[in-house]
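Retry 2 of 3 after timeout on previous attempt. Resubmitting structure tokens to design endpoint.
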């Protein structure tokens, strides 16, 4: 029995009779409260970055609830990623979460050396049955991105600028879904598409967005930090991605497609604690029908977005949730019109 458990029982003994304490000790192990699961996050960017912030938030929520004992390391270079993975694995951590888009092979080699540790990795590759302790996930929030495109088109005169990090499936599918939603409202919508070659370079993203505004864009898709700053500076509108930044840009950010990592995180923790964690694709837990994504409240723009657009958003969301409407998952690189 751990010191934590003994301490908890000692405190409770002030309120319970000795017989009640003995009855508690007699309960089967599986019926007693489990110790928090040791979880570690390894991130190549700051935890403030959109994508990673959602993972971090879910882990912190579980930590506050007492479900997990969570620690993390941020700003880890790809070349240093395997070393950090090994350090956590050897420290007794039971579940390691991170994004390995630039270090796929090395990360899987490390995981193979620690079969008793579960790894939940943001990855472009499918799960491998040869590595049963490695599951993958991704932000499949195309449902929410589609709805944000509907809103965007209703607020634009016809020219939208889109700034992304890298043209990889994780980014492409959200941009394509956004564009599809916008074209449902305005089939003649034109798009300026550019990638900055970085996951976290706000100055470069802002510079790219400013050039798009010069090119006629009256609304920007802010897949990266820095884009909304350009929109605010030039008095145009923006659509957020993954997180809701309207509080910081109340007159600029109309809506945002939000990613909720909690369903993914909670499922992985439950599987590890039950001893049933295995190679699987957790991407489905980001779908809207699993509550893995949503369209942020319109907030300051509630009265500004046309009622027709709000009605269409409500109609499409209901259809997505009941399965009668499916947003296409298009991982191809989006192109400017």
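Retry 2 succeeded. Sequence:
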């Amino acid at each position: 029995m751990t010191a934590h458990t003994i301490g908890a029982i000692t405190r409770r003994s002030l309120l319970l009779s000795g017989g009640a304490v003995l009855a508690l000790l007699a309960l089967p192990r599986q019926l007693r409260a489990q110790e928090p699961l040791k979880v570690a996050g390894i991130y190549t960017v700051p935890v403030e970055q959109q994508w990673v912030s959602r993972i971090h938030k879910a882990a912190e929520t579980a930590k506050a609830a007492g479900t997990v004992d969570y620690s993390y390391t941020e700003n880890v270079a790809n070349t240093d990623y395997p070393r950090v993975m090994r350090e956590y694995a050897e420290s007794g951590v039971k579940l390691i979460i991170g994004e390995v888009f630039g270090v796929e092979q090395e990360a899987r080699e490390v995981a193979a050396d620690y079969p008793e540790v579960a790894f939940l990795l943001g990855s472009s590759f499918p799960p491998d049955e040869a590595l049963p302790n490695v599951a993958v996930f991704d932000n499949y929030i195309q449902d929410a991105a589609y709805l944000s495109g509907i809103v965007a088109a209703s607020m634009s005169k016809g020219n939208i600028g889109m700034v992304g990090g890298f043209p990889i499936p994780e980014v492409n599918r959200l941009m394509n879904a956004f564009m599809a939603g916008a074209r449902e409202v305005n089939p003649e919508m034109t798009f300026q598409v550019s990638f900055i070659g970085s996951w976290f370079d706000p100055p470069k993203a802002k510079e790219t967005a400013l050039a798009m505004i010069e090119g006629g864009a009256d609304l920007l898709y802010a897949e990266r930090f820095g884009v909304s700053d350009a929109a605010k500076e030039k008095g145009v509108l923006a659509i957020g991605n993954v997180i809701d930044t309207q509080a910081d840009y109340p007159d600029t950010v109309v809506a945002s497609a939000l990613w909720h990592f909690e369903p993914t995180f909670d499922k992985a923790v439950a599987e590890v604690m039950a001893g049933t964690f295995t190679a699987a694709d957790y991407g489905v837990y980001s779908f809207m029908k699993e509550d893995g994504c949503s369209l942020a409240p319109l907030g300051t723009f509630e009265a500004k977005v046309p009622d027709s657009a709000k009605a269409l958003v409500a109609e499409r969301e209901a259809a997505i949730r009941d399965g009668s409407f499916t947003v296409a998952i298009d991982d191809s690189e989006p192109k400017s019109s």
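Attempt log closed. DSSP finds eleven helices and eleven strands in the chain.
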